[in-house]
Amino acid sequence: MNAKEFLENERKNIVELERLLTSHKAIAPEGGGDGEKEKCDALYGWLMENGFTDIELFKAPDSRVSYGYRPSLVVTIPGVDDSRRIWVMAHMDVVPTGDLSLWNTDPWTLVEKDGKVFGRGVEDNQQGLCSAAFAALYYIKNGIKPSNTVKLLFVADEENGSEYGAIWLINNTNLFNKNDLVFIPDGGDSEGRTIEIAEKNLLWLHVHVMGKQTHGSRPDSGANACLAACDLSLRLHNLENIFNKKDDLFEPDYSTFQPTKREKNVDSINIIPGEDWFCMDCRILPCYSLAEVLKEVDRSCRETEKMYGVKIEYTTPQKSESPSTSRESPVAQKLAAAIRTVHSLEPKFIGIGGGTVGAELRRKGIDAVVWSTLDDQAHQPNEYCIIENLIKDAQTLIEIFK
């Protein structure tokens, strides 16, 4: 039986795995949840029932959840060659539902309709998880050895930075080798054409401006922290004019420095605030280092301090930079060939502004690519997965494993 026939015969079982996973909430403590254990246990049971025998459980300590750890699973399918392993990494955790009034159905009860399944997590990232599971199942059910050993990695904590998932595994285990190929089915386009090989460097700033509070009628007797903060946010935004190179791998093709969150300062309109807080989200082309960017941030802070008589401090809640995966790397070329075969499309290499676990692997010298066929339903109400997309992704992974 060929891969396409196998997957079509498994369509009902694919939907049932999506249903099982959707019914088990896997929300991080940051979102008011208790982590992934319940969902992980259900997935472990399904894997065992379907003939997967080499399953390892890894526990990243986390005292915030009731059971004290965040689980990740590694499933191994031995291949002809074990010197270079093929990894497929998907995450078990999901985001909260948001405003329930915006949902047409219960987010935790899967609904199948018009070739789609609806529910929280069905696309992000259960589509990738299920496509990986059924691609590997094709080899198990048909008694075929993949060309290289295949490792399925189902991780915790992707939605909140991966500290208790992929990052913990990278830093606390010897799972990965530098010549391994890592595929992350967690981002893409509706055709399955784009292959993400690079990320903009990520810099978040939380800025604290300290002046002197005074009456609204006497600005001369104080130091307006709000005014200084507004000026500084514009100065930082205008760093786009300094770090102004362009790279058509990315969209937008330039570095962005955007003021975002503002925090409460005073309770009354007639009080000039002595303190003010704001945040910046900066996505910077990889041709620039964060060290040179932060040097300009410091310069802008000192100029603002001098102009307004305030003191400015900042922290960096997120700071990340990583190299790109080469278009010519084995992992990129292997995926590109599979897309040509299965999708009959010419793949397109791209970079993104968001952060993924791919960056963590690239920093360790491990090539990784991010790809999937999806409608970009992540984090939306009435999230859905097109079943044909999931099947096509599984077929593509089967081609990669050959």
Describe what this molecule looks like in 3D.
Helices cover 31% and strands 25% of the residues. By secondary structure, the chain is of the alpha+beta class. The protein has a 6-stranded mixed β-sheet, sandwiched between helices. Strands 9, 11, 13, 14 and 15 form a 5-stranded antiparallel β-sheet that branches. Helix 2 (11-22) packs antiparallel against helix 3 and helix 8 (330-343) packs across helix 10 (387-401). The two termini are 14 Å apart. The model has no long low-confidence stretch (mean pLDDT 96).
Structural category? alpha+beta
- Average pLDDT, rounded to a whole number, is 96
Largest sheet: 6 strands, mixed
| Helix share bin | 25-40%
- C-alpha end-to-end distance: 14 Å
**Sheet with most strands: strand arrangement:** 1-2-6-3-7-17
- Which range does the strand content fall in? 15-25%
Count the DSSP helices.
10
Any low-confidence stretches, pLDDT <50, length ≥5?
none
Radius of gyration: 24 Å
Q: Could you tell me the number of beta strands?
A: 18
Spell the H/E element sequence: HHHEEEEEHEHEEEEHEEEHEEHEHEEH
Q: What is the 3D form?
A: elongated
Briefly say what this structure is:
With 402 residues, the protein is α+β, with helices and mostly antiparallel strands. Helix content is 31%, strand content 25%. The strands form five sheets. It has a six-stranded mixed β-sheet with strand order 1-2-6-3-7-17, sandwiched between helices.
Per-chain topology:
Elements: H1 3-9, H2 11-22, H3 37-49, E1 55-61, E2 69-77, E3 81-91, E4 111-113, E5 116-118, H4 126-141, E6 148-155, H5 166-172, E7 181-184, E8 194-199, E9 201-210, E10 214-215, H6 225-237, E11 256-262, E12 271-272, E13 275-284, H7 290-308, E14 311-315, E15 319-320, H8 330-343, E16 348-352, H9 357-363, E17 368-370, E18 384-386, H10 387-401
Parallel strand pairs: 3-6, 3-7, 7-17, 8-16
Antiparallel strand pairs: 1-2, 2-6, 4-5, 5-18, 9-13, 9-14, 9-15, 10-12, 11-13
Helix pairs in contact: 1-10, 2-3, 2-4, 4-10, 6-7, 8-10
